[in-house]
Each structure stands twice: as C-alpha cells, then as structure tokens.
Amino acid sequence: MTTRGHCHCGATRWEFEGPPNWACYCHCDDCRRNCGAPLVAWLGVPMAAFRWTGAAPATRESSPGAYRHFCAACGTPMAFEADHYPGDMHVYAAALEDPTAMQPAFHVHFSSRLPWLTLNDDLPKYDGSVVDLPKDAVIFPKG
After folding, report:
1. Residue 95's CB: how many other CB atoms inside 10 A?
2. How many CB atoms lie within 10 A of CB 33?
3. This prediction's pTM
4. Is a pLDDT exceeding 90 seen at residue 136?
C-alpha cells in the first residue's frame, strides 16, 4: 500500500510504502509554532519506506539535530526528522492526500497543551515524546 501527501501548491510531494509506525497528536511548542496551530497530528514513518517526490523540500535545522522540511514554493510544513528519532520520518497528517485515512491514537507533550484548547477524546495522554512512550502504549486506534 502506498500512502501519499503533498503541500498546498502541490510542488513538493512524498510517499511511503506500508503502514506507519504510529499516529499521534503533539502539543509541544516547537510543533505548534512551526505550523501556527494549537496542536499537530503526525504519522511516524520508517525512513526506509519514505521518499520525496516532486520538488525537493527546503530544510531548516530548528534546533540542534532537528530538521523541519517544508515546500520551498509555498512554505507548507511537510515533515520532521531528528537525530533522536533515528530511522523515522514524521509527516504531517493534514498533508496526506486523504487525511481522513488516519486517526491519531495518543497525545504527546500533553502537559504543554494550550489551556484554551478543549479536547473531549479518551486517547492516552503522555507528557513526554514518542520515544518516551511506555512499552505497552497503544500506538494505533483500537478497532
């Protein structure tokens, strides 16, 4: 199965083969500011299954060892990779060709959430990052 995504103008595209590793919401300040949004929905994708198609993205090192990829033409945030997530590419779920095809299974950096954002889901809420999840964490929705 091939999953595809693209930027707002369609110039920068990506795709990956097979299932993602996980799907979540992130409430950290870096993700919020990068997107200008109260939270961000992510898919963790094995780097070996991921590839850029179309125009190559521009990349900015947002902090040491953390790289944010975006469309050089329209500025759409596209993906994130970091030295502390070896072998993973994180792609923005909203950039999927069909964003309804995924459903986050948990929240990370929940203690950083904005106080005015009301969430009524019953998903697990973790204060750490994906690398800090407990071994028994459910990383995809039960269904």
Report:
1. 22
2. 10
3. 0.90
4. no
